[in-house]
Amino acid sequence: MASTNSTSTEPDPLTPSVVVDDVAVRAVNKRYEGLLTVRTRAIKGKGAWYWAHLEPILLRSPDSGEPKSVKLRCSLCDSLFSASNPSRTASEHLKRGTCPNFNHSSLPSPSPISTVLSDSKNNNRKRTSPNQNHSLPMVDYSHVVQVQDHDVVVGGANHHHHNQSQQHLVLSGGKDDLCALAVFEDSVKKLKSPKNFSPVSPPDLSKEQVDSAVELLADWFFEASGSVPLSAIEHPKFQAFLAQLGLPNAMLRREISGSRLEDRFGVVKAESEARIREAMFFQVGSEGWKSKEWRCCSEGDGLVKFVVNLPNGTSVFQKVVFCGGGVVSAKYAEEVLWETVVGVCGSVVQRCVGIVADRFKAKALRNLEVQNHWMVNVSCQLQGFSGLIKDFSKGLPLFRVVAENCLKVANFINNESQVRNSFLRYRMQELEYAGLVRVPSPKCDVLKDFVSVFPMLEDILSCARVIQMVMLEDTFKVACMEDPLAREVVGIIQNEGFWNDLEAVYSLVKLIRGVVQDIEAERPLIGRCLPLWEEVRTKVKEWCAKYNAVEEPVEKILEKRFRKNYHPAWSAAFILDPFYLIKDTSGKYLPPFKYLTREQEKDVDKLLTRLASREEAHVVLMELMKWRSEGLDPLYAQAVQMKQRDPITGKMKVANPLSSRLVWETCLSEFKSLGKLAVRLIFLHATSCGFKSNCSFMRRISSYKHSSVSLERAQKMAYIAAHAKLERRDFSNEEEKEAELLAMAGSDDGMLAEVFADTPLV
């Protein structure tokens, strides 16, 4: 496949060194553009202060003119610095006075606490008579200049208060004893002058203010999704914080986990049930049947989330179900799904249009659909596209070859000490990062879990130049003479086909992962499924053309996965949703029947006939023919298809997502029978992912399962937190947010992570 490039007979093929140089040039350009983006953002007020004085500079090679490195130039004195750590450069060059033109008055300089302690010591000494010398050798932190072998060297004028011959204060615990000594000093001072150390009185708050503050605090605990445990309330520092604010801390934990939890849960539960009652119909979403992540988070227990998707585009959390740590049968899943449907809508089960789940399409979902003719049960497309990576890794020999070769290269670099040391040194020099190549676990089957192999591919691609530099070292050449494994690794690295194949596999996996990320962010409806799969087909064909891959086996794998996920409701929703109407030569906006295959057209007729009652089945088909020939008024069609730019992502999105359903309920009232089915179809979600929960909370819920009281409280907290997340449309994970914050902490170069994460391909 893609490796055919390596056997090409075209003249002047690229050598590995040229390929590596090209990678380095693109990496330098990428870093330079990333720094410019960070600086531009900072100048607009969304970044660190020092970017006003530091400017990224792209240095070029005097011989070739190609970009060589990126530096930071101080706009105040024109000095050049490494671009590896702008925050450190700002501290050393600007804050510490190295730059002669920097104005230090603009920076805050708080007084050290030691000066306050020093003043209090002097005052106490004045009040203490020589006959009442109970003082210990006092330690002034501002004068401690060295700690070595448990000797503390104290300087400054005040130390002459003690015996002048005592130059070294010896503490058996070393430097850590200073804090304990200071606490002891404070105790002595309090005994001497107790009135001077009276604590600051907390503010006097009214009962209404206290209740309001405690209510906000409780809401924060409930809505934090368990990322902050209730036991944190009893932490001494948090207790001191509450006391400083004048808030009560006695029995606060019991109050929050008791009466306030019950009250808040009652309000949220009533609100959710009211919203479900107001909806004429809904869809049940079920996630967690297939998620290894949840089983890992909950220590082996399967936790399945249930949400209710409403026609107005919102979702309501329903419950969490424990499925145990073993294999879940389709029969058990079918029973749980049906119990959920009955629990939501009672005896009027026809209100549930269908179910979307991340597993059991062929059995549980299919059985429920057969037993209840009005239901449309679909599989989650997030799982469908994720499965493509597994399909490609199993069906394309290229994936196996690339994985095996990369494992040989990575293990050789990581395990050979001399090679490893050289690799770490050059990686730090070139990429300002000294980590080893990430490799999957030895227990991992790379063909079944290729996602775990992807980081290794990223590392080897990004370190192509580093690996080339390691190969040029004398120690590596000597190793090649003595070690056949080293010679094999050299042969792999010097083979142009290896890099071509690696890039091909990397780009295909990245393509599919990009589609999965878009689906996770957009959460498409089922009318979007057919266009989405067609877009992926087009991208995969372009991939085949770019890397000279044979299309037939790739398309066969893609088609097999498509048929495994396909549901006739995709075709029906696609031609019934006014958003997908096409303007013909006469100016009419007609349904896109021409994009359906003959089998898919038959699927539409069969599905609509099944969903309709026996009396209305023929009427529905007649109205479908009328819809096919007449379509929708151009003015209304254009209004439905109007788009606007999303201010967050920058992508064009539908201006009014609910307009497709509203048109059927208002402007297309003549399609009475077809309209009733259309509004129940086009609102259905194609994914079951509602929101992400943090692993710590799921582990906590799992640990409570043996206590009915604790489990009930934990489930109520989960319900409140999930309700708040869905209200805010916050589908992210607390761990992911924290990782983003930590990546940007200390400097405003958060985007630099993207520079290295998205390293250009060879």
From TrEMBL:
Compositionally biased spans, kind Polar residues: 101-121
Domain DUF7963: 21-103
Pfam hit, one: DUF7963
TM region positions: none
Region (Disordered): 101-136
Protein's UniProt name: DUF7963 domain-containing protein
Lineage of origin: Eukaryota, Viridiplantae, Streptophyta, Embryophyta, Tracheophyta
